[in-house]
Structures are given as C-alpha cells and as structure tokens.
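Let us work through a complete example step by step.
Step 1: write down the sequence.
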Amino acid sequence: MAGWLVVNSLLILGSNFQIFAHGGEDHGDSQPKTAVSDKGTVSHTSRIGELELMIKHPAIEPDTATLARLFITRYSTNEAADKVTAVIEFESPSGAVTQVGVEKVDAAGSYILKIPALPDGSYTMRAKITYGGETDTATFSGVTVSHPAAEAATGMTWLRSILMVLVATVVLALFAGLAYFVWRSADEGEIRNDTVSA
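Step 2: predict the structure and record it as tokens.
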C-alpha cells in the first residue's frame, strides 16, 4: 500500500512539473545534446531561438588540427539558414579560450570548422550564432581531446577491474561452499561416532 502511494505521488509530481512549465524554462528540446556514432563521429546539436545547429567532427586528438562541419537550419522547417554569422571557441579547464576558424561554403547554412591543435583535456565548446541582429550561444561541455589508445586503455582498465571483482567473488563463494561442506561432513562424522559409541 505504501509503495503504491509513493509511485502515485511521484507520477502526480512529475505531471505537475510538465503542466506548470512556461516561457523561459528549458523544456528539453533546446538542451544541447552530444552523440557518438558507431564510426566514432561526434555530433553536437542544440536549438538556438528559431534555429538549430549541428557540429560534427571526428574524435579530436591532442596536438592535431581537426576539420569539423557546422550546419545551421531553421528549427520549424529544417531548411538551411542563410545570413548567419557563427563564432566557435574552445575553453580549457584553466579558462584559456581558443578560437576556431569558421569558413562558409557555397551551400547555405553550411560551414567548415578548422579546430586548431589542442592539448589533451576536457573542454567546453561554445557556438555563438548571430542572426537578425541578435546573438545566442549554445554551450557543449565535456568535449574530450585525447588519444584513442588512452581511451581504449581506460576502458580496458575498467573492464579488467570488473572481471577481477567477479573472479574474486566466485572464488570466495567456492571457498565458502567448500568450508561449509567440510564443516558439515565433520559434524555428521561426529554424530555417527556418538551414535555408534552409544
């Protein structure tokens, strides 16, 4: 009964949050998103006012210049947005800001980004978009600059740790089972001896 009340309370509260959302609040569709494809291409998307932007790039390696693409479309119609100015920058954890070269191509709403060589680390990427006399900014945090081998090694370290814990758990369980079996056998042997001697 108590569990039912808790679940209903959470559902009602969740509904209220959606009902009372109003202008100026983040309803989820404008929140910046980052995704990685099976081929390792990283996509950052965000809605800015009436526009939507997407930045696509391969994994960024330290001390290596990287080419990326920027696409800007109108959110409602998905048509390419023209007469837009874009400024892209990377900010390091220490606060150092690095400007990215932005080159407009012939296709409307499409740009080539020239990301300069950056040191290893986690960066905040900002896209400042100016259109119709207004400037808005999309911020993507946790943009990683690292060697793929280092990332793979980190993944292997975690996997190795998990496997070691699992193996240790199995060995302890087997040892506990063996100890219990020996104790039980010894206990039954004593009972038999007591029965025979009686």
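Step 3: interpret the result. DSSP finds two helices and nine strands in the chain.
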